[in-house]
C-alpha cells in the first residue's frame, strides 16, 4: 500500500491468497486418480487517473515493479482517453474470519477416506438394478485470502469447501447415457453422503430408470421445474442480467426496468452470501461486508448486484458482489447464492396444479443472452406428469424461451429450498456459487 500511495494512486488494494485443492477420482469404488495443487500469490488492483488496472504476482518482491508499470499504463491511456472509474464509499473493515470443518480432509487418514468411498459404492450397488459404471469425483478445497486496501481495510478469510459428484453411465441402444449429481458445500467430510448414503437414493432412482426412458415430443408443456433446473434458469438467464456491469454496458434486458413490475406478485428474488453453501463468504473481493440483497420484491425489480465501481456509476452502494475465484483474477460483479424466495406450495400441490404435463429434472447448463433474455437450457432428464402424479422417465432434452415471458408464466413456488454445489463462468473466470432454489411451475414451457 505504501508503494502505491507514494506513486500517486487514488486507490489500491492487494489480495494475498492461497488455495489448496485435492482431487480424487474413483470408478466403481476404486480410486484411479489423485491430484494435488497448491496455488498462492498476490493480486494488485489500482485506480489511477480514473483507470482501473490489475496484475497478479507470485511474490511480493515484484510488487513495486508492477505498481509502477500499472501507473505508467494509466497515464498513457489518459493521454487519449479520459478515465471514468471511481469507487462508491464503503466502510473500512477489519476482520479475521476462519471457518473450520468438523472432519478435516487433511488430517483424515487416506485409508479411511478410501473405505468411505468403497462403502458408498457398495450402498449404491445394492440398489442399482441396471448395469452402470459409477464414477465418484471429489474436490477437497481450502481457500484463504487476506485483503488490504489503501482505505485502511484489513480482512482475512479462510473457508473449507467440498464437492462430491456422482456420475452414472449406462448404454442405451449402443449410445452412452449419463446422469450426474453433486453433493457438498462449505464444510468438510462430514457434509458428504458417506454417513447418510440414503441421500444418494434419488441419484440411483434416475440411473435405474434411464434404460426405459423415452424421447420427449417437441411442444409446449405445463411444467414443474426441479430445484436445480429452477436455479439454472434463474441464475443463467435472470441473474446475469441483474449484474450491474452488464446493465451499464448494455448487455442486460433488465436495463431500464428498475422499479417496474416484471413478474407476478408471487416472485421475489434474493442474493445472499450467508447461506452455507459453495456461495458462502463474509466479505467480497474488495473487502465489503456481505449482505442479502432483495432484487425482485413481489414482482417489482428493486435492485442490481453491485461493486464499488458500478455503484459509483449508478449513484448507489456496493451490494458486496465483487468477486474473484482467487488472487490471480480481477474481480467481477457476480452472484453468490441467488434464488427464488420459497412460498407456500408443497411438491404435491405443484404437481396437482400442473395436472398433466412435464417434470423437468436437473439442469445440464446451456446458453443464454443477457441482452435479450433468450435462453436454451439442457435438462438431464424429465418425467411425465399424469393426473398430478409423476410418471415415465424422459431422456435429456432442451427448454427454451425468453426470460421475461417465462417469469410471467410462473404460478406456484414450493415451500422448501435445496442447497447444492454450483459454479458460474463469466468472462472465462469460474467461481463457486450455491445452486439454491425451490421447485417452481411454468406454464407452456417450450421443450425440444
Report on this structure.
This protein has nine helices and 24 strands. With 448 residues, the chain is an alpha+beta fold. The strands form five sheets. Strands 8, 15, 16, 17, 18, 19, 20, 21 and 24 form a nine-stranded mixed beta sheet that branches. A hairpin with a 2-residue loop joins β1 (11-27) and β2 (30-48). The mean pLDDT is 92.
Summarize the structure.
It is built from 9 helices and 24 strands. With 448 residues, it is an alpha+beta fold.
Write the layout of secondary structure elements.
Elements: H1 2-6, E1 11-27, E2 30-48, E3 51-57, H2 63-78, E4 94-98, H3 110-127, E5 133-149, E6 154-172, E7 175-186, H4 201-209, E8 219-225, H5 227-238, H6 244-248, E9 269-271, E10 293-297, E11 300-301, H7 308-314, E12 322-323, E13 332-333, E14 338-340, H8 347-354, E15 357-360, E16 363-369, E17 374-379, E18 382-386, E19 389-394, E20 397-402, H9 403-408, E21 410-413, E22 418-426, E23 429-437, E24 440-447
Parallel strand pairs: 4-6, 8-15
Antiparallel strand pairs: 1-2, 1-5, 2-3, 5-6, 6-7, 8-24, 9-10, 9-14, 10-11, 12-13, 15-18, 16-17, 17-20, 18-19, 20-24, 21-24, 22-23
Amino acid at each position: 500500500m505504501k508503494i502505491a500511495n507514494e506513486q500517486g494512486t487514488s486507490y489500491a488494494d492487494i489480495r494475498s491468497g492461497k488455495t489448496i485443492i485435492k482431487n480424487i477420482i474413483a470408478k466403481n469404488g476404486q480410486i484411479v486418480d489423485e491430484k494435488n495443487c497448491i496455488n498462492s500469490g498476490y493480486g494488485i488492483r489500482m485506480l489511477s487517473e480514473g483507470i482501473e488496472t490489475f496484475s497478479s504476482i507470485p511474490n511480493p518482491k515484484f510488487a513495486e515493479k508492477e505498481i509502477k508499470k500499472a501507473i505508467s499504463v494509466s497515464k498513457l491511456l489518459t493521454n487519449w482517453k479520459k478515465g471514468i472509474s471511481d469507487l462508491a464509499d464503503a466502510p473500512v473493515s477489519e476482520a479475521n474470519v476462519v471457518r473450520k470443518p468438523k472432519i478435516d480432509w487433511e488430517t483424515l487418514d487416506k485409508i479411511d477416506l478410501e473405505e468411505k468411498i468403497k462403502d458408498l459404492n457398495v450402498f449404491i450397488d445394492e440398489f442399482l438394478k441396471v448395469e452402470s459404471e459409477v464414477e465418484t469425483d471429489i474436490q477437497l478445497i481450502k481457500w484463504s485470502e487476506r485483503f488490504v486496501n489503501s482505505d485502511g481495510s484489513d480482512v482475512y478469510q479462510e473457508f473449507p469447501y467440498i464437492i462430491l459428484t456422482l456420475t452414472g453411465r449406462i448404454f442405451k441402444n449402443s449410445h452412452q447415457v449419463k446422469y450426474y449429481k453433486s453433493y457438498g458445500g462449505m464444510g468438510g467430510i462430514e457434509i458428504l453422503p458417506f454417513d447418510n448414503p440414503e441421500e444418494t437414493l434419488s441419484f440411483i432412482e434416475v440411473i435405474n430408470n434411464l434404460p426405459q426412458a423415452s424421447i420427449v415430443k417437441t411442444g409446449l408443456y405445463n411444467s414443474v421445474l426441479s430445484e436445480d433446473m429452477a436455479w439454472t434458469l434463474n441464475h443463467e438467464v435472470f441473474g446475469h442480467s441483474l449484474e450491474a456491469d452488464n446493465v451499464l454496458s448494455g448487455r442486460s434486458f433488465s436495463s431500464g426496468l428498475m422499479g417496474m413490475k416484471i413478474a407476478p406478485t408471487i416472485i421475489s428474488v434474493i442474493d445472499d452470501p450467508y447461506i452455507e453453501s459453495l456461495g458462502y463468504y463474509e466479505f467480497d473481493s474488495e473487502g465489503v461486508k456481505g449482505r442479502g440483497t432483495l432484487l425482485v420484491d413481489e414482482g417489482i425489480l428493486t435492485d442490481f448486484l453491485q461493486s464499488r465501481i458500478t455503484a459509483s456509476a449508478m449513484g448507489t452502494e456496493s451490494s458486496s458482489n465483487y468477486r474473484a475465484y482467487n488472487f490471480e483474477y480481477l474481480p467481477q460483479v457476480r452472484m453468490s447464492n441467488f434464488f427464488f424466495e420459497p412460498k407456500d406450495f408443497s411438491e404435491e400441490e405443484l404437481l396437482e396444479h400442473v395436472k398433466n404435463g412435464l417434470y423437468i429434472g436437473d439442469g445440464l447448463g446451456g446458453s443464454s443472452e443477457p441482452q435479450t433474455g433468450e435462453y436454451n437450457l439442457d435438462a438431464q432428464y424429465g418425467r411425465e406428469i399424469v393426473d398430478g402424479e409423476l410418471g415415465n422417465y424422459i431422456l435429456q432434452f432442451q427448454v427454451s424461451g425468453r426470460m421475461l415471458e417465462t417469469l410471467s408464466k410462473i404460478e406456484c413456488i414450493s415451500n422448501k429450498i435445496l442447497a447444492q454445489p454450483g459454479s458460474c463462468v463469466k468472462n472465462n473466470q469460474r467461481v463457486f456459487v450455491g445452486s439454491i432454489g425451490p421447485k417452481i411451475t411454468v406454464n407452456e414451457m417450450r421443450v425440444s
